[in-house]
Structures are given as C-alpha cells and as structure tokens.
Amino acid sequence: MNTSRKLTMARAISEAIAQEIERDDRVFVMGEDVGIYGGIFSATAGLYEKFGPEQVMDTPISETGFIGAALGLAMEGMRPIVELMFVDFFGVCMDQIYNHIAKNIYFSGGNVRVPLVLMTATGGGYNDAGQHSQCLWGTFAHLPGLKVVIPSTPFDAKGLMISAIRDDNPVIYMFHKGLMGLGWMTLIKDTTGPVPEEPYTIPFGRADIKREGNDVTIISVSMGVYQSLEAAKELERAGISAEVIDLRTLVPLDRETIAESVKKTRRVLVVDEDYLSYGMTGEIAATVMELAFDYLDAPVKRLAVPDVPIPYSRPLEQFVLPSAPKIVEAVKELLYS
Amino acid sequence: MSADRQKVASVPSQRSKDQFLELYRQMVLIRRFEERAAEAYTQGKIGGFLHLAIGEEPANVGVMAALRSDDDVFTHYRSHGQALARGMDPKAVMAELFGRATGVSKGRGGSMHLASLEHHFWGGYAIVGGHIPMAVGMAVAHQYTGSDRVVVCIFGDGAVNTGAFHEALNMAGVWRLPIVFVVSNNLYGMGTAINRSSAVTEVYKRAAAYNMPGVRANGNDVLETEATVREAVEKARAGEGPSLVELMTYRFRGHSMADPELYRSKEEVEQWKARDPIAAFRRRLEEEGIATAAEFEAIDRRVAETVDEAVRFANESPEPDPATLFDHVYVNP
Ligand SMILES: Cc1ncc(C[n+]2csc(CCOP(=O)(O)OP(=O)(O)O)c2C)c(N)n1
Ligand SMILES: [Mg+2]
Fold it and tell me: Which ligand 1 atom sits nearest the alpha carbon of residue B160?
C-alpha cells in the first residue's frame, strides 16, 4: 500500500464511506446536517455532492426516530451509517441503541443481521462544557451487543470505518473532534497522517502497538494515544522506554496484547479521557490482574477524568483532562515510587 | 414572512415612553453584548461554539417583558439575550462566557448553561429539547401548590421534532398546566431549513394536537411579541391551561461562531439584515414622536458603557480554582 499521501482524519473517514458507497449501493448515510452541511465535523464532507440526497440523508433533530429508523434499514439489508452528532446526545436515543440496535440479533436467535454503523463525535479540550465534551465509550462498551471502535490516526480511521461498514453487527464508531484535523478546531500538532488511496480494512479486536518500549506500558485510545506518544518522547529523554498500546476497539478487546506487553514491561498506566470510575481504566486493570498479575512490579495506575461533569472553564477543564505532561508525571510515579 | 396567523395579537397603545425606551435599551444591550462576545471569541477568550441571537433581540425581549419577575423561564443554549432581558447582570453573564469564577454558573456552564435562580431563570440547556419536560414538571408543581406562577419554556424550531417536545406538550395539554411554550422560529435548525425537517412548517398548528391554543406572531416586533406572550401567560395564570406561541424571527449570524453557512444565500441574510428589527423599532418610535434621536443616542452610550464594563469585569475576574473542582457535583459532597 502506498502511504505517501497524507490526509486529515475527517478526509480519511469521508473517503472510506465514499469508497464503500461506490462498492455497495446499500451503504447509506443519515444524520443531522450530514448532507448539505457535510457533517459539522466534516466526517461526511463531499458525500452529498457525490451521491445525492437519496443516499446521504439529512434528518430532523429526532435522534430516537432516525437512529431507530437506521435499525429498520439495516434489518432490511441496507448498510446505514448513522451519525449522532455528539456522543453526549446519546441520552435522547439510548433506548434505540441499547435495547433495540444492540439486542435485535440476539432476540432473533441470530436470524437478523444489523449491519449498522453509529458514528459519533467525542472528546473535549475546547471549552464546550458538560453536555458536549464527553467520551462515554465505557458506557457503550459496558452493555453487550455493540462493537466499539475508536480510531486515533487517519490511517486507522479509514481502515476501521471500512471494517465497520462491512461488519454485519452494529458498530459504534467514535472519533475525537480534536483529532479530525479541522482548521477551525484542532487540538493536535500533526493534523494529517498517511492514508493509502485504495480501500483497506483493519480487523477489530487487534490493538496496535504504536511504539515499542521496555520499562512501562501505556494503554489508551483516541486522543490519549496521541498524548501518550508525546509523553513517550519526553520519557525517552529521561531514559525511560515506554510502550504505547492503542486498543483501537474496546469491544472486542485485545486482552492478549495487553497481557503480553505487561509481562515484558511489568508496569502499566492506563490513560482515558472518559470518566475514571466504572470505565475503561478499571476494565484494563482487571484484565491485567487476571492475565498478568504475577508479572507486575507495581499496581496498575490510572489517569482518567475524575468523576465530575466536564467543566466549561478552561483551567478547570485542562485540570481534569489527561495530557502529555500528566502522563509523564504518572509514569515517573509508577517507576520511582 | 407569512402573515398566516391564527390570531393577530393586539398591540397595546397605552404604554409609557419609559417602557418603550426600556425595550429599546434591552435590545441594544443584547446586540452590543453579543458583538463583544463574538469579538472575545475570536480572541480566544471564550471557548466552545458560542451561539448568538443577533437579529432575534425582539423575540428575546418581548417574551421577558410579558412575565412577572417570579414566573419561571427555561430556555436553550442560545440564551445570552434572554438572560439579559430577564435582568441578569451583564457582568456576571459575560464572566460566565469567559469561564470565570464570578460568572452566573461559576464558570462551570459557560455560554450554553446560564442560570440564575434569583431571576427564576432555570437555565440554558444544550441538548435540543432536553429542557421541555422539566419545564412541564415545574408547571405541575405550581398547579399542585396552587401557585399563580407561570412557566415559560423557550426553544427553537428544530426542537419541535424531538420526542421530548411531543411528550411534554401532550402532558401539558392533558393536565391543563400553567405553562407557555415559546418557539423562536428562525427558520433553521443548524444548517437545516425548517421545510426540510418539518412536515408541518407552521409550528403553531401543532398545538391542535395537544388541545391548546397555538398562535403565531412576528418575533421581530417586540410589541407584538410581548402582547402575544402576555395573553398566553395571563390565560395560564388564570387556570385556562397551556399555549404554544410561535415567534417568527431570523438569526443574522451563523448557527454558532464555527458555521460556514453553506446552507443559505448571502442575499437571504442581507434581506433580513436590511429589515433590522431594532432599527425598525427605533424608527417607528421616532416617527410617532415618542422619542428623539438624542434620547436613543444617550441610551446607546449607556449601553456601550455597560458592555465595556462587563468585558472589563470578565477579563479581570479570577479563573475558578482547581481546588474547587468537586464543588457542586452534589449538593452535599
Ligand atoms: C439532542 C440534540 N441533537 C442535536 C443537537 C445539535 N444541535 C445543537 S443546536 C441544533 C439546532 C437547533 O435548532 P433550533 O431548535 O431551531 O434552535 P436555533 O439554534 O435555531 O436557535 C442542533 C442540531 C443537540 N444539541 N442536541
Ligand atoms: Mg432554529
């Protein structure tokens, strides 16, 4: 695959969708302002112009209605990609997601297929307050029936989207607003990354070791991976070799890669932009206890958003969100205390 | 705009000059306040998205003018204007936009979550339609306790397609609650024009489904807005049940500061701006000899000072202390 071309994550996602629509005309996009507007985070930019309103459908602000409708489309063999503009709005339509989309395969004894992608924006860091800044992947990973996909790079974003569309199960696909590479809102330095032009898939349940190291394993997803890699560079200057694992999918979860890494490094930090309690960090810690307890030189350490709604105020928000310097500090505590 | 109304509100002719000038002052205050907020946003002093109501000032001011100070207001995220018209301190509102400890919500909520109990202003809410059921609940409480307070719940034309809207209005209709639902119909929900999202674009007609009166008024006319809302509020206060008031208006700016506005033409926006409702109100008062240019200019100057002071206050206010992070998550931690 030629990887000399660089794209933003937003372009990588919209390209993946476009290529899948071209490959299979049952692929169908719906959501609020996904058409003429192009999706407020540009995940569907250009699709309306290319494929028209029949296949790229703007909806009313009726999440229960159109996300539920996407289930009906999927049950009939269509392959809808339905956008929930911000994951925070899940409350409005959670019944459709959890009780219907995630359970219909089971309730039909496996006779029904639900090839549905629920695409949604996550993350904070730009002062959008507590109803627009959450990650909430732990909430979706908690209940059975959904696959949970979280890309951290443009390359992964494209491959994981194509896998999500081709999967016959419902998949929630959670991108981070700050990683999309948007000119008007970017929280990262490298807004683009290599993305091959031809379609490709990335299997679910396979974590990606984004950086190899020996002294400590840092496990994260999404923005946390980006920050962990930055922290790893800094740690290297301090003579600490950090391994950074990008889980990429929480369901299915690649427990094996986690355990193998911990057996090598003997120390683990889990970094999460979701809430601390009852979430991803706890699940990873439990996994490490179950699979690699004997190898640990220190208790598993967690860095996540404390159990408080994301504050609007900039210093308060920065105080609660993980960051590269906080990761560096946590690793040093893990190693030296 | 269509003159298609179920009922044309009567504009009270008896009103003092001071009252007229106060309405004007409030509208100019909102305009100038929001212009300065937009400026602060581009300077990076305000974060998030920032939704302005420039162009919708009469709809903001007219509603509040129709209420008693102990009536209860619930609204959505486009609420700076409503907060100011409700009498909230521009300094504390601006400080909230700046995320400062002196803000109305102590920097926790920001632009979309302004609240002041003292003003019976129960909040701006950022989940479209999310606040409609709780407004109904407060009206149930008023009915239960025999209070004569009325609840006013404001939302946009986009919110009427949420399940919460239907569920809440139906309950209000069944229980004959003291509540007035006010839809600020600015013709768009984000980038989607109302005719692309609503099977029935005349929102007031939906009232029929909930057995309550539905009225459409020119939301760009502050007097017509006030009179229409007042009639509905007084009905509710008299125990005659809920109403749905649709205020026709238009936002001059994008949905938020981050909106490229690809979904509407420049000409359309310019046409609306040419009929600027604040300028029109002022012209009308001048033509009718109610006030002079000098009097308006004096108000403009006072407003400019108020807004300067609000920005200065916000700039100089302290950021919230991280030691207070867990404050207010629970009443008693
Ligand atoms: C449940 C939910 N869905 C979507 C959004 C995103 N969103 C915020 S404002 C908005 C448009 C609302 O339009 P309208 O109700 O007409 O109010 P206006 O912004 O025009 O004042 C949308 C889609 C949201 N905040 N909440
Ligand atoms: Mg609107």
Answer: 15
Q: pLDDT for B96-123, tens place per residue?
A: 999 999 999 999 999 999 999 999 999 9
Q: Would you say residue B191 lies in a domain?
A: yes
Does A203 map to a domain?
Answer: no
At residue B245, does pLDDT exceed 50?
A: yes
Q: Are strands A193-194 and A6-7 parallel, antiparallel or unpaired?
A: antiparallel
Q: Give the count of domains, chain A.
A: 2
Residues A261 and A170 in one domain: no
Domain boundary among A131, A162, A194: A194
Tell me: do A280 and A185 sit in the same domain: no
Considering only the beta carbons, identify the residue of B109, B191, B196 that sits closest to A129.
B109
- Could you tell me the distance, in angstroms and rounded to a whole number, from the CA of residue A210 to the centre of ligand 1? 38
**Residue B279, token pair as written in the block:** 């300028």
Predicted confidence (pLDDT) per residue in A192-217, tens digit? 999 999 999 999 999 999 999 999 99
Q: Domain of A161?
A: 6-194
Q: Give the three-class secondary structure for B28.
A: helix
Residue A295 pLDDT more than 90?
yes
The rounded Å distance from CA B190 to ligand 2 centre is 7
pLDDT at B10: 38
Q: CB–CB of A44/A28 below 8 Å?
A: no
Atom nearest to B130 CA in ligand 1: 1
Q: Is residue B238 part of a domain?
A: yes
Alpha-carbon distances, residue A149 vs A37, A167, B325 (angstroms) = 25, 12, 31
CA distance A161 to A16: 6
d(CA B40, CA B31): 14
Question: Which chain A residue has its CA at the smallest distance from B125's CA?
Answer: A131
Does the pLDDT at position B6 exceed 90? Answer: no
B7 within some domain? no
B1: pLDDT strictly greater than 50: no
Domain boundary among A165, A194, A223: A194
Look at residue B264 and tell me if it is in a domain. Answer: yes
Q: What does DSSP say about strands B151-156 and B179-185: parallel, antiparallel, or unpaired?
A: parallel
Closest residue in B to A130 (Cα) is: B109
* CATH number of the structural domain spanning residue A243: 3.40.50.920
Separation of alpha carbons B132 and B155, rounded Å: 8
Do β-strands A268-275 and A249-251 pair in parallel, antiparallel, or remain unpaired? unpaired
The structure's pTM equals: 0.95
Q: How confident is the model at residue B209 (pLDDT cuts 50, 70, 90)?
A: very high
| A166 belongs to a structural domain | yes
User: Does the Cβ of B66 fall within 6 Å of ligand 1?
Assistant: no
Q: Taking CB atoms and an 8 Å limit, are B99 and A127 in contact across chains?
A: yes
Look up residue B276 and give its two tokens.
């600027």
Asked if pLDDT for residue B232 goes beyond 50, the answer is: yes
**Residue A202 forms part of a structural domain:** no
Contacts of B317 (CB under 8 A, 6+ apart): B95, B98, B100, B101, B102, B103
- Per DSSP, the residues of A50-107 read HH-TTTEEE--S-HHHHHHHHHHHHHTT-EEEEEEEEGGGHHHHHIIIIIIITTHHHH
User: Which of B48, B319, B329 is the closest to A128 by Cβ?
Assistant: B48
Task: Kindly report the CATH number assigned to the domain that includes residue A73.
Answer: 3.40.50.970
Q: How many domains does chain B have?
A: 1
